[in-house]
Specification:
The structure is a homodimer. Chain A is an alpha/beta fold. Chain A folds into two domains: 113 residues, Rossmann fold, CATH 3.40.50; 187 residues, NAD(P)-binding Rossmann-like Domain (Rossmann fold). Chain A is 35% helix and 15% strand. Chain A contains twelve helices and twelve strands. Chain A has a seven-stranded parallel beta sheet, with helices on both faces. Chain A has a five-stranded parallel beta sheet with strand order 2-1-3-4-5, with helices on one face. In chain A, strand 4, helix 3 and strand 5 form a beta-alpha-beta unit. Chain A is globular.
C-alpha cells in the first residue's frame, strides 16, 4: 500500500485527531519526530507535512509534489525552497493560534513582572522577602511585528490596561499607534517580539538595539529565536540592563531541540540556553505558546481543509508567499 | 527614648519607605518578623502595627491604645478583639492592592491553564509532548466574593474575554451577573475565591461544595486559606476532579508560615502543604499577591495617613468594622 502523506512532528493528540478525520482514500504515515530524528532517508510520500523543526532533505525536493507546514509561520519552508527548480506546492495553515500565542505572551509577562520563579523557590520556606514585583497596569509595551499574532497580543495587552505601541514595516492594522524601532525602544518597559523571520528581522533585536531600552525592561520573544541572538540576551541579563527575559523560541531551534532531546550537554549552545533558562529572571518554554486545545482543534481542521484542497485543485488555501524582505 | 509605634512584619523596602516619611516627632521600632517570631513579651509601644501573620498577645490588650493592620483585610484583627473590654482603636488600610491581587489571580489562572510547570520541567530536554493547555478566552469564571478585590478580578477577567459571574451575600457591584453558589459551581470552569473570611465563609468551599464543579475545573484562592480546607483540595486533585489549584493563601497561615520558615518538616500540615505545592498542576505562592511596587507605595501612604489621623483624632480613616456574619 502506497503512503500518500507523511506527517512529521505529529504529537499524539494531533495524530489521533487527523487519523479520525482524514478521508479513508488517503493513506497517511505519522512520525512523532522531525525528519532528521526519524532518520527518514528515502522519501516516504510525495506529500510531506512538517511543523517548524524538520529540514526537507535536498534529495527529496525533485520528487515531492507538496509540502504543508502545520504552522502559522512559513519562513522556514520558504527558505528551504528558495533555490528549488521543480515546482512544489508549498502551504501553511494560516492563522490558527494567534490567541493562544497572545495569552502565552501575557503569561510570560505576568510571570516575569511578578518574580514568580522566586516566589515558587521561596515557597517551601514561606520566605517572603525580596519578592516585590510590579503591575502590568499602565506598563509601556512595544509590540515588534504587528501581524496576526502581534495584533492579537496588542489587543490583549491593551485590554489589561497597558499602554501599547507597535513597530511594523507594513502598518496595516488600525488599532495601534505605530512608532519606529528607534523611537519605541527607549520608551518601552516591555518588548514583545511577534515578528516574522525575514532577511530584515534576522538578528535585528541584537545587543546594540536592546541596549536602548530603559534599564530593567523585560524582553519576550514568541515568534522566532533568530531575531534576537541568545548571547546578546545573556549579556544584557548579566549586566542587569534587562530585568527579565521570556522566551518560547530559540535560534536554530530544530538543531538545538534535537541536541537538547538527546542530552548533548557538551554542545556550547545547549549549555548556554540551559544555564540561561535556569536564572531567576528568565523563563523559557519549549516552543509551546501555540499549543492550546482550541488552537489544536482549529489546526486539525485547517490541516484537513488544506489536504482536501490540494487533492482537488493542486493548490493550498494558504500558499507560502514570496517574503518581501 | 520611648517608642511610639512598633511595626511588626515590616519588609526591608516598606521599612525604608516608612522611615523616610514618618514625622520626626514619632519614634518607631521595626521588626521583620511576626510578634511571635520576634519573641516580644513586654508591650513595645502603645501603638502596634502588624500585617496578617501576628497574634496580639492577650496580655497586651489592656495597655494598647491602637492596632493598625497594614492589610486590605481586617478579619484577623476583628477576631482577636471580639471579646476585648478595653476600647482599642483598630484600623486597616482600606483598598490598596486590589489590582495587584487581581493580576496575581490572572497569572495563576494562565499558569495553570497552560500547564506551565510541565513546560518549565520539560524545557531542559526540549520535550514537547503532553503540554497542550487551554485558552482563558471564553472560559466560565466564578468569582466567589465580589468586594474590592473580587470586582477588580472580575473586571480583569472580563477584559481578557472570559465569561464572568459572581457570588456575594451583598451584591452591591453592578458590573457582574450574580448567581447563587449552588447555581455557579456546576457552571464554572474556574473558581476564584476573593471573599473575606467570616463565620459564614470559613470552610464554605469544602470538598462537598467543590465536588459540584465540572471535572477538570480550576480553583484559585487569593483571599483567605480558611475558606477552603487544604485536605479537601488535596483529595480533589488526587481524584482528578479538580484540574489544577493555585493558592496564595493558607489556613492558619501565621502558624504554618512560622513552621515552614523554621523548617519544621515533621509537622503534618507543613508536609501536606509542601507536597501539594510540588505537584505539576498546583501552584503555591507565599501570600505575595498584594506585593507590587505600586501597591507598596500606596500602602506606605495609607499607613502614614492612618498614623497621622490616629494622633490627630484618635480614630483611623479605615476603622475595623463589625463583621456581619
Amino acid at each position: 500500500m502506497t503512503v500518500d502523506i507523511a506527517f512529521f512532528e505529529a504529537f499524539t493528540e494531533e495524530r489521533q485527531q487527523i487519523t479520525e478525520q482524514l478521508p479513508p482514500t488517503i493513506s497517511p504515515v505519522f512520525y512523532q519526530d522531525t525528519i532528521q530524528e526519524a532518520g527518514a532517508s528515502a522519501l516516504p510520500a510525495k506529500f510531506i507535512s512538517v511543523r517548524t523543526q524538520s529540514v526537507i532533505p535536498d534529495g527529496w525536493k525533485q520528487e515531492l509534489d507538496a509540502v504543508l507546514t502545520r504552522s502559522q509561520g512559513f519562513d522556514h519552508i520558504h527558505r528551504m525552497f528558495t533555490d528549488c527548480v521543480k515546482p512544489v506546492a508549498l502551504g501553511y495553515l494560516g492563522p490558527y493560534c494567534s490567541r493562544a500565542v497572545a495569552e502565552h505572551a501575557l503569561m510570560l509577562l505576568l510571570m516575569l513582572i511578578k518574580n514568580v520563579k522566586a516566589q515558587l523557590d521561596q515557597f517551601p520556606r514561606f520566605y517572603r522577602e525580596g519578592l516585590t514585583g510590579r503591575e502590568v497596569f499602565r506598563r509601556k509595551v512595544l509590540i515588534f511585528g504587528v501581524g496576526q499574532i502581534g495584533s492579537e497580543t496588542a489587543k490583549l495587552c491593551r485590554a489589561c490596561g497597558m499602554d501599547v505601541r507597535g513597530v511594523d514595516i507594513d502598518p496595516k492594522w488600525d488599532g495601534i499607534e505605530y512608532v519606529s524601532l528607534d523611537e519605541g525602544l527607549p520608551w518601552a518597559e516591555v518588548v514583545i517580539c511577534a515578528a516574522a523571520l525575514t532577511d530584515i528581522t534576522a538578528g535585528l533585536l541584537n545587543r546594540k538595539r536592546l541596549a536602548a531600552l530603559p534599564t530593567g525592561a523585560l524582553f519576550i520573544n514568541i515568534s522566532r529565536g533568530e531575531i534576537s541572538p541568545v548571547e546578546d540576551l545573556v549579556s544584557l541579563i548579566d549586566e542587569n540592563r534587562l530585568g527579565g527575559v521570556g522566551l518560547d523560541v530559540f535560534p536554530d531551534e530544530k538543531d538545538l531541540g534535537e541536541k537538547m532531546r538527546s542530552g548533548d550537554i557538551d554542545d556550547p549552545l545547549v549549555r548556554q540556553v540551559t544555564a540561561f533558562a535556569g536564572r531567576p529572571n528568565v523563563i523559557c518554554t519549549p516552543h509551546n505558546a501555540f499549543n492550546s486545545a482550541e488552537a489544536l482543534a482549529l489546526k486539525t481542521n485547517r490541516t484537513l481543509e488544506s489536504v482536501a484542497a490540494f487533492y482537488e485543485s493542486g493548490r493550498f488555501p494558504y500558499p507560502v508567499p514570496e517574503i518581501k524582505a
